[in-house]
Amino acid sequence: MVAAEDAGRTSDIAGKLGVEPGMVVQELGWDSDVDEAVRDAVEERAGDELLDEDADEAVDVVLMWWREGDGDLVDALINAIGPLAESGVVWVLTPKTGRRGHVEPSEIAEAAPTAGLSQTSNVSVGDDWAGARLVAPKAAKSRR
After folding, report:
1. Strands 84-95 vs 129-135: parallel, antiparallel or unpaired
2. What are phi and psi of 10, to 5 degrees?
3. pLDDT band at 36, cuts 50/70/90?
4. Burial class of residue 134 (count of CB atoms within 10 Å of its CB; 0-12, 13-18, 19+)
5. Secondary-structure breakdown of the chain: helix, strand, coil percentages, each rounded to the nearest 5
């Protein structure tokens, strides 16, 4: 029964991230500390391998693993949105509070608008990682 619960939780990760079958997903910032269960769940749901930073096709979702000390988040976000489809989403995945490489949520909240993105939600994507969902603002929202 525990195995079934674990399997359900793993497959739910891709759902939390809004990944659907057939979506093109790009991964940025991979290193040995990433959560392989998250990667596997996303690949399984999308039905294809994750693209790396050298991919030049349009992508629906960007998974950006980001840690304190990785550089300038605004620059990284601007680079990430280059291949993003019009309705695409960037997930900034950071180590949770108390974990090595933790990034303060305020850093993401400040970087997103500078890069032309809006933060819409946060999710837990495992024991060690949290995700912040960033999207391009809708035209209707900018008219308010």
Report:
1. antiparallel
2. -65, -45
3. very high
4. buried
5. 35, 25, 40
Strand partners, 64: 28, 92
What are the distances in angstroms from CA 6 to CA 17, 18, 48, 124?
17, 19, 22, 15
With H, G, I as helix, E, B as strand and everything else as coil, classify residue 27: strand
* Cα–Cα distance measured from residue 63 to residue 17, given in angstroms and rounded to the nearest whole number: 9
Structural tokens at position 141: 């929202």
Structure tokens at 93: 């995945």
Sign of CA dihedral 11, 37, 9, 42: negative
Beta bridge mates, 129: 95
Range list of H helices, the chain: 2-16, 36-46, 73-81, 105-114, 139-142
pTM over 0.85: yes
Give the dihedral of Cα atoms 55, 34, 117, 103; nearest 10 deg.
-140
